[in-house]
Amino acid sequence: MADEIKYFILIICVLLIPKFLLRLRIPAGITAIALGILTSHFLGWFSSSPTLEVLATLGVTSLFLFAGLEIDLYELKKDAPTLIKHVVISVVIIFVCAYGLHWALDLNYRVATILSLGLTTPSTGFILNSISGFKLTEQQKYWIRSKAIAKEVLALVILFFSLQSESIGQLSISLGVIVMMILVLPLAFQFFIKIIAPYAPDSEVTFMILMAFICGVVTMKLGAYYLIGAFIAGVIAAQFRHFIKTDDSEKMLYSISFFAGLLIPFYFFKAGVKIDLSAVSINSLLYGLWFLAIFVPIRYLNVFVSLRFFLNECWGSRYQISLSLMPTLIFGLVIASILRNQFMVDMDIINGLILYTIVASIIPSIFLKGAPRELYDPRFVAKRRS
C-alpha cells in the first residue's frame, strides 16, 4: 500500500475514532495508544516513521508549552505556603518510593528515582485537557491545576538532575545551556513583540510553538527530554503581557490548546506503536498490578493528607481532587521511553509501568461524574454565547 494512503488512514483513525469513544468515557489518549498497538501488531506500519516522529514531537512540545503558559506566578506566590508543604511531602514520597524500587527491583538508585517519577507524577497537560469533562467546581479545578503544576515542576527538576547526574561535566554543560536558554528566551520574545508581531498579525501562536519545539530539541540533545525545554518556553512566555493578558490572549491560549489537542494523539499513537505485544508477559502484568496496588493508594493518601492538614477548606472535595490527580499518562509514557532507550531496563518493568499509567489514567473517567455537555462541548458553548 502506498505511504500516502497509510498516512491518510492514520490521520482519519487517530483524529476521529478517539472522539467517538469519548461517549463511552474512554480518554482519547488511551484509544490512540490502543490504535498504535493494533497497527504495529497486525499491520507493521509506522515502526520507524520520521513523519510520525515529527507529529508526535510537535504534539508533546505544544502540550507542555500550554502547561507552562498555565503557570500564574502571582497565584503560585499567593498559595506558596500550601503548595510548598505539598511539594515537600511529594519529595519525600518520590525518594522513599525510589529507595523501595531500588531494593525490590535491584535497580541502581538513579534509575529507581526516574521510575519513581513515572509512577507518582500526575500529567498536567492531560489533566488540564480532561477536567472540563468532569462535574467539578471552579475551586476544585483551581486546586487540581495548582497541585498538578507544582508536582510536575518538581518532577521535571528531579528528572533533569537524574538524567544528567552521571558526570559532573555533563551536568555543568547542561545547566549552562538551560541557564543560557532562560536568559535568551526573554530576548527572543521581546524581539518578536517589538519587531515581528506589528508586521505579522496573528503570528504569536506559531512563534511560541516554534520556540517550544526548538527548546525541546535542545534539551533532548542534552540527554534530557523534549518536555523540559518546551515547559521552560511556556513558563517564560507566560511572563509577557503580550501573550497572556491582552484581549487576544484567550484566543491564543485556545489556539495552542487546540493545536496540542490535535497533535498529541499522534504522540500516544507512536507510544502504542513502540509497544511490542510479544514482549508482554505474565511478569509484565504482575509488575503492572503490583504498581497499581502500591502506588495508587500512596498517591491517593498523599493528596488526602495534604488537604487534611494544609488545605482543610477543601476537605469536602478530597475525593474529586484526589481522583483527578491520578492520570500519569504522558509522564508515564515519557519515563517508559527514557528507561527503554537510555537505560535498557527490563522490558517487563517498562510494560508494567505502561499498564499502570494506562489504568491510573482511566480512574477519573470511572469514578467521577461527567459534566453536562453544555459546559464543555464547543457547539453548546457557542450556542449559549450567541
Structural features, described:
By secondary structure, this protein is mostly helical. It has a single domain (3-385), classed as Na+/H+ antiporter like fold. It is 79% helix and 0% strand. The chain has 19 helices and no strands. α1 packs antiparallel against α2 (28-43), α8 (138-164) runs parallel beside α15 and α9 (168-196) packs across α11. The chain is globular, with a radius of gyration of 20 Å. It starts with a helix and ends with a helix.
The topology string of helices and strands comes to HHHHHHHHHHHHHHHHHHH
Assembly type of the chains comes to single chain
| Total number of helices | 19
Q: What is the CATH topology descriptor?
A: Na+/H+ antiporter like fold
CATH class: Mainly Alpha
From the spread of the alpha carbons, the general shape counts as globular
Content of β-strand: under 5%
From the coordinates shown, what is the CATH architecture? Up-down Bundle
The rounded Rg comes to 20 Å
Distance between the termini: 47 Å
Question: How many individual β-strands?
Answer: 0
List low-pLDDT spans: 373-386
Q: Structural class of the helices, strands and pairings?
A: mainly alpha
Largest sheet: none
Average predicted local confidence, pLDDT: 85
